[in-house]
Design goal:
mainly beta, 4-stranded antiparallel beta sheet, 12% helix
């Protein structure tokens, strides 16, 4: 058993046809989650409360732990305001925005620190493990940290803003990029490795 995504059950800001407040379920701001990845004869499990990735054999035996030192990032009032603003910006009308803004004030306080990494892992064609770094609200460029099959840190790769990595080869990365109108384009980039 592993912890799942942290959710908040609280007033959503909506009103039912009978005039009652609607209770909704949503992700907790800066909440924790567990990432899973199966690749070749291994599977990886990582709860992003700390930077520790468990590596299991196909039979379920714990083979190793991949750990990385990282600096905990404090959840500041400015970071919380930025996440709330991003949520409100997606709403279309002023009345909904007003109700949701009021509902956001009733949500439980977030953790004191942000997660250690995004709950996203991938493996490339030669078996390296890629873990997406946590994106604070001001981040625009997704960065992935790469480990070899033995858990040795190889380095980090920054992708262009708006790029969602979907496939990693030995010499390329493939994914979707969205423009300012949210139109998707398939893009491939060369993966240049240091010598």
């Amino acid at each position: 058993s592993y912890p799942g995504i942290e959710l908040v059950i609280a007033p959503s800001g909506g009103i039912s046809p009978t005039g009652e407040r609607i209770i909704g379920r949503s992700r907790r701001f800066f909440g924790r989650d567990t990432a899973f990845l199966a690749h070749a004869d291994r599977y990886y499990v990582a709860d992003n409360t700390t930077y520790e990735i468990r590596v299991f054999s196909a039979e379920g035996t714990l083979e190793s732990l991949i750990r990385r030192a990282y600096q905990e990032i404090e959840v500041t009032a400015e970071a919380l305001d930025a996440v709330r603003a991003q949520l409100l910006d997606r709403l279309r009308d002023d009345e909904t925005r007003r109700r949701v803004r009021a509902a956001l004030r009733e949500r439980p306080a977030p953790h004191e620190t942000m997660p250690a990494f995004e709950p996203r892992m991938a493996a490339d064609m030669i078996g390296n493990l890629w873990v997406q770094d946590y994106m604070v609200p001001s981040d625009r460029v997704p960065v992935w940290t790469v480990f070899d099959q033995d858990g040795v840190l190889l380095g980090s790769v920054a992708f262009p803003e708006g790029f969602d990595c979907l496939d990693i080869g030995d010499e390329y990365v493939l994914g979707l990029w969205r423009d300012e109108d949210d139109v998707e384009y398939v893009r491939m980039y060369d993966l240049v490795k240091p010598e």
